Amino acid sequence: MLEQIRSLIAAALEERLTADQSIQSILATVETEGRADLNADENASFDEKRAELDVIDVRIDELRQREEKLSDLDERRSEAAVALEQFTRNAPAVVVRSEERTYRADGEHDFLQDAFRAKFHHDSRAAERVERARSEALSEYRSTTGNFGGLVVPQFLTSQFAENLRSGRPFLNNVTAVPLPEAGMTMTIPRGTTGTTVAAQTTQNTAVSNTTYVAADLNVPVRTFAGQQVVSRQAVERGTGIGQIIMSDLYSDYATKVNISAISGDGSAGGHFGVLNTTSVQTAAWAGTTGASLVSSIHNALGKINAGRFMAADLVVMHPRRWAWLCSQSDSSGRPLVEITGYSGDNVIGAGAASGYGIMGSVAGVPVVTDAGVPIGLGVSTDEDRIIVTRRADNLFMEDAAAPVGFNFEEVLGDSLGIRMVVFGYSAFTAGRFPVGTCVISGTGFKQVLS
Fold first, then answer.
1. What's 38's domain CATH number?
2. Full residue range of the structural domain in which residue 78 is found
3. Is the whole model's pTM more than 0.70, yes or no?
4. Among 162, 209, 253, 372, fewest CB within 10 Å belongs to which?
C-alpha cells in the first residue's frame, strides 16, 4: 500500500512539473518580448494552469498525509516487533486476564468516527482500531432484542452480520473535492459568460476591437442530507453492536445519497442540479447495438470536450452492468474489445477487469469508474442507463470537513426508553462551472445490456 501511495505521489509531482513548466513558458515569452503584462490568451492559459496547480497541490498534500500515516504505522509496527521480541526473551511468563478494550466510555477514540474515516477517508490508523475492536468482539456473544433478525440468537457470530448493501460514492471520490465554507446555504461562484475580443486593426489610428467582459453568478445550493432511526435502549445496551450497526448503516446511506444527488440531482427550479440535469452540458448519442458503436460514441464525447473545453476529459463514469457488457463485446473476428487484466489482445480499445467496483480500467486511454449510482431507469421505456465523460477538475464537490455528523438523542424519548440516532451533513456539488467539460451519452443503444 505504501509503495502504491508513493507511486501516486510521483505521478502527481510529474503532473505538477508539467503544469509549472507551462506557466514558466508563458512568463518566459512575456519576458523575452519585453512586455510587462500578459495578453488575454496568456492570462487565460496562466489562470488555467494555476488552477491545475492548486488542485494538484491539494492532491499531493493528501497523498503525503496518507504516506506519513502509513510510514508511521510501519515504523511503529517495527518498533513493536522489536520490543515484543525483547520482552518475550527477557520477561517472565505472565497470564493476561483482562486488558482495556479499544472502544470504551472513557476512551479517547470513537468507533463510529473511526468506521467512517476508515471506509471513506482511507485512514489506516482508524481501520486498524476498527479491526482490533472486531477481534475483541469475537470473544463476547450476547442476546439482543427488537427487530434485528438473527442477532437475537445467542450463538450468532456477530462478525458475520450481513450489512445492507449501498453503492457508495465512487464518482465523488474521483472529482475535485474542497472544504465547504463555514457559513451560507448558497455558494456563489463567478463565471465568465462573455469574453473580451481581439482583432486585427483595420488601419493605423482606427478603433481596435472592444468587447466588455461579462460575468454571471453560478449559485450552488448547500444541501443537507440527513437520516434517523429510533432504537430501544434495550437493543443498544443489551444487544451486540446494534448502535454501531444502525449508525454505520446511516453513514453508508449518507455517502450513497450524496453521490446519487451529484450524478442526477433533482432538476427542480431552485433545487440541486446533478451532472445529468446541469444546463449546457454536452451530449452525444448511442443508437448502435455493438460494443464498437459504443466506443465510437465515447470517442465522439471525448472529441466534443476537446473542441469545446479546449482541454481533455480524464474520467468516464458508467454503471457496473454497462462496463461488464462492454468487456463482453468482441469484433467480427471474435476478438475481445477490452483487454482483461492477465490476458492480451491485438485490437483492444480498452483495458481492465470486468469484475469489480470503482476504478476498473480505461477506454481510449481515459480511466473508467463504475458507479451503481448511475440511473438505469431512463429513456422512454425506462430501461436505459447513461455514460458520463468529463474532466475531474470541472466537477466541484464541497463538503463540510466534519460531515457526516452522528448524534444520539436519549432525553426526548426517555419516557419510552427509546434512543433516536441521527446522521446529517452539509455539502454542495456543481458541474456548472465549465459545463462544456462534460458530455453525457444517451440513446436507445443503452437498451443493450446483459440481463
1. 1.20.58
2. 1-89
3. no
4. 162
Beta-bridged to residue 283, according to DSSP, are 440
Give the residue carrying C-alpha cell 446555504.
185
Q: What is the CATH number of the domain that holds 367?
A: 3.30.2400.10
| CA atoms of 203 and 96, how far apart (whole Å) | 95
pLDDT in tens, 291-347: 999 999 999 999 999 999 999 999 999 999 999 999 888 888 778 888 876 556 666
Smallest CA-to-CA distance from 256 within 328, 172, 167 is with: 167
Count of positions (residues) in the chain: 451
HSE-CB for 31 with a 13 A CA cutoff:
6
132 domain-assigned? no
Q: What share of the chain is helix, strand, coil (3-state, %, to 5)?
A: 40, 20, 35
Three cell numbers written together for 273: 442540479
The reported pLDDT for the residue numbered 312 is: 93
Q: Residue 429 in contact with residue 257, Cβ under 8 Å?
A: no
